[in-house]
């Protein structure tokens, strides 16, 4: 049996001047691919350069006329390329080669090296072009000034040096040309304007759709499970039971929370499942907010197949082998006649596209397994961890994705009193640790 | 409750010189959208011109310098535009405006008219560019020579006149420019090279993915249900029963059929579901062919929810209201805790993308409701008809999509003797009737 998109190893090569969001894009792609079950890794040439040549490199180091530095930089690029090839030869499905790769000659060299090393490999290039000086400047200030290359430098000094570094690259920059006869996507000003050439197969096509829907406007994403259901109380899986009295009270309190949180903004997108407990929770919220929701089967809870309506104890008694198998690997275990977490990921993928595309605040009211999958997408969790993520009842998870991290706040809502307890304000992940600098 | 993509009416305007596949593309889009549940219709300006100005128009009629003819052509374009607006004001979700629309001024006029008539309307332009003279010539010969404009003309005469007509348009042709500030996709040489600008929302994004995967290489698509299952014999719905002895024999005969049909070509794509009866049928076929298959949950049979394992008689007895509701509207009826045909369409959509993208022969071994949905996509069936389509057991449906029709052959295979009976060779639909010329 084959798996879609897994016939060939793939290399995704980034192209573009510094501060064009290449690292942002390659990290997003990498996260998306891993989440979909393709083992993927970013190889950032800059990190190799910093490890090998140190961080004390000012813009002169990037002058194409500086022969020694050029040679050192070429060596770093080759080292990254080699590691990438080894990764693909071993466990990896997709390698992302995150560097400027600004000349035709460089891209040709990479293509030739890869073709020598693999009998069959797909290479897909992603060029990020941005001509908006404000965006570039913001990008420099947001992501480059914390860069170890600029420790101890003033912000002005660092910005100026980085702009000079960009100029050095610009001297030799050749945008991808159709004559190079490579598969590529050019992204101009992240998502607005896109050019695609010679796209092949499942994975490249997925990536194009994904990249088409990206934008860099910040907006919050709110995740909440439905209120407590009758099956929750009985510890039964599956079913389509309605809310308990407590669950209904949560729904009302949740509505009040959103009224205050959104300050009367009705310009939002709200998604829910087709199940009673989610619909009834959403109805209460929508009534207070004066908005409508999308009810989607893709957000229905994981289907427990033949275990529907049983407690975990009953499953252990009735289907001991299934119970054990699931305990061993909750991610890939598929309930007989039901679904696995991987099945769920593949059907909620369309919701990820909807959320990514939205420039408005998004509310998702759904179910434990569903929200585990969505949450993991935003947080760069290892896929095998997904079935263990903590998504309790009666809690809102507010996510605000930013360039290299996702800000998270958890709001625990007491269904009885309506009191909120803000839980995890401190889980903001720092740019630096995320960038592995 | 809202439905994804249905907030705004949409107009899709075609742009391009004659014989660039605009009609092909707009018909494909229209079929795809209708299949997805968006009421869509193509308004072909050429058909208005033929109705109003007659068919005796040689290339001089298309000379931009010919004032009278220009005026008449403008009037036809306006009439089509008006009908299109009325369609959107009434039942329509999406109108496709199929004409050359080759000048900026024309596109501006259309934009302004639409903005006057609707407070909110999305306009999305699709420009088809083809510079391959062979493809253009083939296109002329395949689709234009049967055109009523050329009745009674020799093939050479008609081709030459049509080429002159293209030249007339070329005099004033202005490809879409970013300065026009409109949302567009440019398709160069159908699918190879694509430019996207200012894409917004669910439906436009879907369309781009769809158009990205189109190609014009002919290849057969084979659909077959699994062999007879135990539940088939018991007249029960749902379940995950295995093949009967007869079903297993069909599987073996099906393999033999494909060995002969494909003449040893192992370069094919084969998709099946995750259900026992489909997997076991596919295993038999693959063993003989020496190929592998993709097993996808998206191809699992429609989920009958609480009716799983019942006969229709039992459903009528146990759930009389559901039984009646389903009989009234089999398309939208969703089995409690199960699926409707519309739910199935939305999950098999990804398979349509896989099939469209494939340049290799495709085999799908699946289930009745699933194959009804796939078959309807290829055959321009009205969506409400889908649940009634005839997809019997032990029959292969071979489809070969061509420019404006889909060639169909049905091969009935006797599970016992392995004899084939070729059934519907004559269902080829003629270009002419499909084009409503």
TrEMBL record, chains A, B:
Query: What processes does the entry annotate via GO biological process terms?
Result: fructose 2,6-bisphosphate metabolic process; fructose metabolic process
Chain positions recorded as substrate binding sites: 225-232, 277
Q: Where is the 6-phosphofructo-2-kinase domain?
A: 5-218
Any one cellular component term from GO for this entry? Answer: cytosol
Q: Which UniProt keywords apply?
A: ATP-binding, Nucleotide-binding
The active site lies at: 226, 301
A GO molecular function held by the record: ATP binding
Q: Where are the transmembrane segments?
A: none
Q: GTP-binding: present as a keyword of the record?
A: no
UniProt-recorded name of the protein: 6-phosphofructo-2-kinase domain-containing protein
């Amino acid at each position: 049996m084959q798996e879609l998109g897994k016939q060939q190893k793939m290399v995704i090569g980034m192209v573009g001047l510094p501060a064009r969001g290449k690292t942002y894009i390659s990290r997003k792609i990498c996260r998306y691919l891993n989440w979909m079950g393709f083992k993927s890794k970013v190889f950032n040439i800059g990190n190799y350069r910093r490890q090998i040549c140190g961080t004390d490199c000012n813009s002169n180091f990037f002058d194409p006329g500086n022969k020694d530095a050029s040679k050192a930089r070429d060596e770093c690029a080759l080292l990254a390329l080699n590691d990438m090839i080894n990764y693909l030869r071993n466990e990896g499905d997709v390698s992302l080669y995150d560097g400027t790769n600004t000349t035709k000659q460089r891209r040709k060299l990479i293509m030739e090296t890869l073709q020598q090393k693999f009998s069959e490999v797909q290479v897909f290039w992603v060029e990020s072009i941005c001509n908006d000086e404000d965006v570039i400047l913001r990008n420099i200030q947001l992501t480059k000034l914390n860069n170890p290359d600029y420790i101890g430098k003033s912000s002005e000094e660092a910005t100026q040096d980085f702009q000079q570094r960009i100029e050095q690259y610009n001297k030799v920059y050749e945008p991808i040309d159709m004559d190079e006869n490579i598969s590529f996507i050019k992204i101009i000003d992240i998502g607005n304007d896109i050019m695609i050439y010679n796209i092949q197969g499942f994975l490249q096509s997925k990536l194009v759709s994904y990249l088409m829907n990206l934008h860099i406007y910040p907006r919050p994403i709110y995740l909440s499970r439905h209120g407590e259901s009758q099956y929750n109380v009985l510890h039964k899986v599956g079913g389509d039971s309605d809310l308990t009295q407590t669950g209904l009270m949560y729904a009302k309190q949740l509505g009040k929370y959103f009224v205050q949180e959104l300050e009367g903004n009705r310009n939002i997108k709200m998604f829910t499942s087709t199940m009673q407990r989610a619909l009834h929770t959403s109805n209460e919220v929508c009534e207070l907010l004066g908005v409508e929701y999308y009810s989607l089967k893709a957000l229905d809870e994981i289907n427990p197949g033949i275990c529907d309506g049983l407690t975990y104890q009953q499953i252990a008694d009735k289907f001991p082998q299934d119970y054990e198998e699931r305990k061993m690997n909750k991610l890939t275990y598929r309930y007989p006649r039901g679904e696995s977490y991987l099945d769920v990921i593949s059907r909620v993928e369309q919701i990820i596209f909807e959320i990514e595309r939205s420039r408005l605040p998004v509310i998702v009211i759904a179910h434990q397994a569903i929200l585990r999958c969505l949450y993991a997408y935003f947080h760069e969790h290892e896929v095998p961890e997904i079935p263990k993520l903590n998504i309790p009842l009666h809690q809102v998870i507010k996510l605000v994705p930013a360039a290299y991290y996702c800000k998270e706040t958890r709001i625990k809502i007491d269904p009885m009193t309506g009191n909120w307890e803000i839980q995890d304000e401190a889980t903001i992940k720092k740019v630096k640790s995320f960038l592995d600098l």
